[in-house]
Design goal:
Length: 214
Amino acid sequence: MAKPHMTNYTCPDCGEVFEIEQWNVINAKENPEAKDKLLHGNLFRQTCPRCGKQMHVAYTCLYTNHDKKFVISLQPNREEPAATPLMPHYQMRLEYTLSNFFERARILEAGLDDMALEMMRMVLLAQIQQKFPDKNITSLRFDSVQDDEIYFQIDPKNPHEQIKIPLPYFWRMEDKLKESGMRPNLAGYAVMNTKWVQQSGILACLLPQQKPEE
């Protein structure tokens, strides 16, 4: 069973050295409490016992769900490799920041195809920016799936400011990707984000399909 260990950490504000609990490996089934803290964004939260500063402390961490067959590696140091060997038939994702790590875990735990979700996120963001140019909305952060609707946060400083998208809208996006044959077979870790979607060319599946000439 995966277990945490204690390590020393120095407060960046007051220089106090104190012990923190560090999880380098989390198994969704074996570590349900750690899983819950991860999904709520609290697992890496620390409080300095001297000055009271609250902070997130990022370190290498591997989150695995064997039932849903995915693994997410958090690697704050981009120059180091992902934290596990390749796992065939698993969705393997690599993240460099805590916020993306938390979000990726929520997406995959919700059972969503994150490739289709990233594609939908790009389309939605473009539509929202066009419809509300004065709001300066620059990101959509996946929050949860509730009552057949997908919730996105539109302001990272205000998690309660959200939009909701009907789940069938996502399913249509997913179906278009599957039916197009453009979904790539990934081997190894992928950083699934806007840049990946743009470079992969999968957005072409949303273009009107030309009928073959008779």
